[in-house]
Amino acid sequence: MKKHIKNNVNWVGFLDWELKKFHGEDYSIMHGSSQNAYLIEEEKTVLIDTIWTPHRFDFVENLKKEIDLKKIDFIVTNHGECDHSGALTALLEEIPNTPIYCTAACVKSLEGQYGKRGWNFKVVKTGDSVEIGNGKKLIFVEMKMLHWPDSMATYLTGDNILFSNDAFGQHFAVEELFNDKANQCLLFHEAIKYFTNILNPFAMLAANKIKEIKNLNLPIDIIAPSHGAVWRDNPMQIVNLYEKWANAYQENQITVVYDTMWEGTTKIAHRIAEEIHKQSPNTVVKVFSIAKHDKNEIMTEVFKSKAIAVGSPTEGNDMLSSVAGWMAFLKSLKFKNKKAAAFGCYGWSGESVKLIQEKLKESGFTVVDASVKSLWNPTEETLAQVPEMVKQLIA
Q1: Which of 210, 225, 245 is the last residue of a domain?
Q2: Over the stretch 137-161, which tens digit does the pLDDT of each residue have?
Q3: Catalytic option among 55, 84, 147, 171
Q4: Helices 236-245 and 184-194: crossing angle, nearest 10°?
Q5: What would the pLDDT profile of 371-383 be if each residue is shown by its tens digit?
Q6: Residues 220 and 257 in one domain
């Protein structure tokens, strides 16, 4: 069922209420998601993107109920990833030779995923446009590495709609479609989670692209992303948030992250949290067990933080594998302008704290000199190391 966006523009996507994981198992979905596709019916009929491969046949059948497929003049593929392009194979069985407007990198992506099928590609770059009648046109803006090399956005003149692809989206199912109808707490949490876990590695590129979009001085009444709510109420609010988030973002927060074997490292983590509150009562403190909490949710809190403390006992001359895996993900997100400290227990060799410090430095954190290292379970004497470490973190 299509949902009205504005004038002759409708949403024709798929609400994925049952979705729990995305990008394989790498991204958690807590409140459903959507794959947003859009249908423009002016003198020319244009389809902006499709939906994910598993739902391709439903998409085509639903689209048939709304329009004669042969009336589609062309398709815009803003991004070749299969959650956007997955229904193209089924759709183009019905309407072969329909032109596909996309970037040169997107052609490689689509042919790499689906094979060379002889599709009718029309390669575009930033500033290219195509008339669709009634005085309106589509203008294309490349969005390289936000978050793939092939990504672009499409702007519809007249209606002033920016089809922004993966920028400004959320993995969040909103039956009511629009941002002003969505639960606001969930909307903004899912938006910052999406930025943290998917776009932050390209934050510098995002900042530059936002400046470029603003410098175009295009009136934007609606931002229609590929996932989640459509921004119609003050749409530039999400652009302004991206501008803040892309600039080494932090709040007055410290996050403590750890895993443990026999609860000794847990005790240190909890004492660190207590000490942060004691020394800096206005600082928000979050504590997470890596083994028990969702990694994407933890990273969202790390993104907000000005500092983190990471803990692991020593096991096999190393940190726990759960912590090592989490730290590999931490490095990939390329956080900036944050302090860090390490802590942990040990029974024999005690390498974990030093190894965590090294990994934190490799991940771009400023690691403080002080650490907390406990032989066997922490005693009050051992925990006396905590205040100095916290003092250096909050300084």
Answers
A1: 245
A2: 999 999 987 888 899 999 999 999 9
A3: 147
A4: 40
A5: 999 999 999 999 9
A6: no
